Amino acid sequence: MVDVVISGTGLYVPPNKVTNEELVAAFNAHADQYNHEHKADIDAGLIPAKQHSSAAFIEKASGIKSRHLVDVEGVMDLNRMMSKLPEGGHGDFENPCLQAHMGIEAGKDALKQAGLTGEDIDYLVCSSAVMQRSFPAIGIEVQHHLGTKGSALDMVMGCSSATYGLITGINAIKCGMADRVLMINPEIFSTMINFRDRDSHFIFGDIATAVVLERADLAKGDDLWKVIDTKADTKYSNNIRSQYGPMTRLDDGSLMRQDMFFVQEGRKVFKELLPLVTSFINEQLENLDLQVTDLARMWLHQANINMNMYAAKKLLGREPTYDEAPTVLENYGNIAGAGSVVAFHENRENMASGDKGIICSFGAGYSIGSLIVEKL
Amino acid sequence: MVDVVISGTGLYVPPNKVTNEELVAAFNAHADQYNHEHKADIDAGLIPAKQHSSAAFIEKASGIKSRHLVDVEGVMDLNRMMSKLPEGGHGDFENPCLQAHMGIEAGKDALKQAGLTGEDIDYLVCSSAVMQRSFPAIGIEVQHHLGTKGSALDMVMGCSSATYGLITGINAIKCGMADRVLMINPEIFSTMINFRDRDSHFIFGDIATAVVLERADLAKGDDLWKVIDTKADTKYSNNIRSQYGPMTRLDDGSLMRQDMFFVQEGRKVFKELLPLVTSFINEQLENLDLQVTDLARMWLHQANINMNMYAAKKLLGREPTYDEAPTVLENYGNIAGAGSVVAFHENRENMASGDKGIICSFGAGYSIGSLIVEKL
Fold this sequence. Notes:
The structure is a homodimer of 376-residue chains.
Chain A: E1 4-12, E2 17-19, H1 20-37, H2 39-43, H3 55-62, E3 66-68, H4 73-76, H5 98-114, E4 123-128, H6 138-146, E5 151-156, H7 161-174, E6 180-187, E7 207-215, E8 225-234, E9 240-241, H8 246-250, E10 263-264, H9 266-287, E11 295-300, H10 305-316, H11 329-332, H12 339-346, E12 356-363, E13 367-375
Helix pairs in contact in A: 1-3, 5-6, 9-10
């Protein structure tokens, strides 16, 4: 079977950035307003008062200092606390919708790095934790604007969206369906966030990534990463969930109900998912006769600093250095399926031929997905 | 590379059925109510009156006599005209959500036909025109209840959902990622229908299909179909579209706006998509050195009787017999991505070893996808 390489990665970062301090100012003003409006019930002990948050709490709990969002103004508006639909956000035939736009820009960046143009690509996989609409597929809209050939498809896979999209693309090349695949991964997860919820309002940022995959013998780029192995595993859990979708319309008046946003049982996720992740990686390495010390780098899903450090430490048996398990949480937050790819995109420059690493996602589902790669 | 066979197909049909006559009674009562409420504007020529529909018009335009829906009562309620959320429709950890439930039932049916149980499956692809929620993936919920191994993923691909799901599964087997794949295809497209729209309220029905794919050398079933070839093509179009999705919440008050439902430019679709479909199939046959007369059967997407007959006639150069291009529109309506698989499920009993056929989808995107299969 043919070998597959990663020959380019790309990024699109929405221009609107919001710091912990700004988010906290909005949240605390909301908490004050809420407590004032519900004073009687709170005083009577019927409902709890909303506690203030702080930038220090957020940074300690998550490692995040700021994140980019598709819209900040709406989030900071006390009467709204939710992104506004960006102008032209739905798009039309001439102008891409917001999510397609993000994917197109990341795609251009990745194609450039691989030294290719859209028409060199014969299969496009668009994968995200949340798709802007169901049809026509966002991937087909991206295909149209980038001029890629063949077909495109949409996948939805929570925080494993990018790795599962990559595995689908790698399979397509290995079995001869395609020679060159563009994996597009536009994440607009802020649309699912309840910015009135102290525990989760700060977690996520928006971003898009893209990755070019090629049949190894065709690739001409100067930064090639051979895919040595892929692995995927899923196990059902409701601990990261949102009910939002077509059923929301049937479930009267529920658009803003709490369960229609991202809801997480954070402690359960930490306790249940991390052991799955570490055994998953150990098992994959064992099957390849590799040790964790054979990995120069672990580009992990960017969940939060504590989960990331716990996983890396558990695998290594000691504290990781920054280079061994780089994080991008500080500037981007948890960026859903894009996390491990952004970590790879931003932290591979100083690596040498023969160096190996793992790109590994984990999250809602639960799902875990990984690629072990080697620099050529 | 290994050969792949289809060794089982399964169906789940929601118990609630509605005839053209019943749908028309509800629609006409709505039209009367609308015309009464807007009498002044209609009399002044500011807006057009809503025309009555008829069962005969629907049958002539579509070939549909009845369809099954996840809920009929809400659709027939003049004050609602939309399915109600079925009891327990969102599900929880113990009880599957509606879409997972449909998929699980179809999956059991397909596994039984293949002589397998859930644990024989090592990859599950869940594909639909519309997913009930984004996370956790519906496919992972189905995996949990059927006890399948390995991983599951969700794909969203309009009326090509089943064929694109099958191609993804076939690729996974061919490249060694899996030995046995279960493709689950639960369609709840009625959630996207504006039942107050005369042109589209009658088109769609709900259903779930499932297909078992196996490495040919492992398959032990008594009705095996070798996959000779697969092909996929997409070309962007807005002629079948809905804006509904995460952006709906940001786009204030738009839940019931017309563009949040299925909207179709039917004539443009007919004119643009059918030539793409016929050249697609001709090209695929040519690459395989086959003639259309080598196909004993064409299991086409069930769009409407006129599109289906036009495509079959164009390909054959004459009127098709029922057996050559079977339709299931009469009882099920257009069932989104499930159409070609249901046609295959219900119309292959009398075929002989060596007989070939094509399972071909086409629809929103635009997308076209096909499998050429041969009975072993």
